Amino acid sequence: MPWVITFIASWILFLILVDWRELKTNVWGGVLALMLATLVDWGGQKLELYTFNSLIIPWFGCSAFYKLGPVFTMGILFCQAVPKSKWLQIIHVLAFSVIFLAVERLIIGIGVAEYLHWHSLASLFINLLALTGLTWFKLEFLQSKGEKNQ
Are 106 and 42 in contact (CB under 8 A)? Predict the structure, then answer.
């Protein structure tokens, strides 16, 4: 049930905050976030770093509700809000990294995920890397050429 609750909460937040005009472009940020998180979590479980429990609908060892909820929707919202200023981009990456970490700590605290040989700081580091990559993806591939040249 916690997976379903995070899914519903993520989609409610998404529906409130999404810019519908830019969704066709920013959805690719959600897709990339989904692919990155799936790869990282699948690998993390194969290496026995952490595990997920109570999977209603499994998605490469994790909950599909988690991947298609917080990961996918936050990937879109992240790309939607990437600022132009490099300093603001750093703050943006830091803020979303902490938000992702907070969601992770919540699911750990509830008991549907468990660290085996892992630590929150490692997750923060992975979040920083992934979101920095997502920022690059947004700026290089999703932003229109006209906006880049300004």
Answer: no
Q: What angle, rounded to 10 degrees, do the helices at 72-80 and 86-110 form?
A: 160
In the chain, where are the structural domains located? 2-144
DSSP annotation of 20 reads G
The residues that bridge with 58 in the sheet, in sequence order, are 63
Q: Evaluate whether 61 touches 42 at the Cβ level (below 8 Å).
A: yes
Q: What is the pLDDT of residues 72-118, one digit of tens each?
A: 999 999 999 999 999 999 999 999 999 999 999 999 999 999 999 99
pTM: 0.93
Q: How far apart are CA 117 and CA 18, in angstroms?
A: 36
Element housing 58 (H / E): strand 58-59
